[in-house]
Design brief:
heterodimer, A: two-stranded antiparallel sheet, 12 helices, B: alpha+beta, Sufe protein. Chain: A, flavoprotein (chain A), RnfABCDGE type electron transport complex subunit D (chain A)
Chain lengths: 268, 151
Amino acid sequence: MTANQWIKSPKGYVAIAIVAYLLIASIGSQDMMGIINGIVAVGVSVVVDIICSRIEKRKRIMPDGAVITGLIISLILSTTTSWPIVAATAAISILSKHLLVHKKKPIFNPAALGLLLSILFFQTEQSWWGAFGDLPVWTVTFLLIGGYAVTNRVNKYPQVFSFLGTFFILLFFMGHFNVGDASDALRPPFINAALFFGFFMLTDPPTSPAKVKGQIFFGILAAVAGAVVYGLFGGLMYLFIGLLIGNLFHLLKTRSSSQRKVAERLEL
Amino acid sequence: MAKMNKKWVILCSTAVAAVYAAGYFTTETQASIQQQPQHTQINIQSNGGQSNDTSINKSPTSSLYQDGTYTGMGRNRRGSIQVAVTIKNDKITDVEISDFAMHYSESDVVGMPEEVIQNQSAKVMNVSGATYSTQAFEDAVLDALSQAQNA
């Protein structure tokens, strides 16, 4: 694959968008620590990915997915997070990608699982600074431009719309009936987090369905699970938990359809 | 799978934006209540225990703070912290986190009240790396101290 071909690939789109976000958010917040964290997270992700791929004796070693995972981690962890914690979060994410697999594909979104475990193990502060959570509201435009470009490229509009639509409907009712803290979830930095998550994490092709029906159900499930967790506990884990539940649904659906195909072949 | 038609993309985007706007305006009152500073002063004790009238305790020479327990609020985009600071003879004798509404773990700030009492200052070390919670905590203590100063 040439560099030109890679840039036009889904991973190329995502990588360009999130590198741009890293730079814009760093310049906007006048804080270069995010870039240092980005270098650490990407470096560790790539090294762990290459080591795991060699152990698995994979023929093609292309750590572009690990680069994206590392970048996403650095955009979400607070810029004040110490580098060993950033490195550990990146390592956990990539290890989950290689250890928790079904038919050589990761079951869970690596960045989401790594970041969730990072909160549980290290109590990391996740600020979503790279989604412009601390910058003026108009910077959300950057998220929308990059998000639509990526969603269009990976063909995941049904999933993104069903997720955001369901999530906002549930927050509307939560706000109307004064359940949980819906006002926070609809305002920066949490709305930035939801948009970044919906466009760049939920749409990860290996861990989410491709067909329209599957995408819609996946989006609704992730939104309902996330909103319920947010309504009950608040905090910042709700989006990740929603996605991981969606990933599990995708795994179960893939397994049942492959079992059905085997049964059909045996009957023939 | 075929690409989604542009008209459908625009239609769905508009629908999602409309639902978001409905939620945003529904929670507008809730958000504006949260933004308002909640300054309260409780259990005001007079200097020397002679009188409950705080005005007569302001001597021009002596104290920086009025004795009593003051609640202060610190808020940022990640939530809020409310503290109750007790002052006696110009010293911070007790600090309690009366309300923790940050989107992070409360364990991040659990040792901070003790630190304020030891250092006799709102400035605390951010050992946990919890920048936003530390900021909100410091602001809350400063808010309480400024009330004690102005009382």
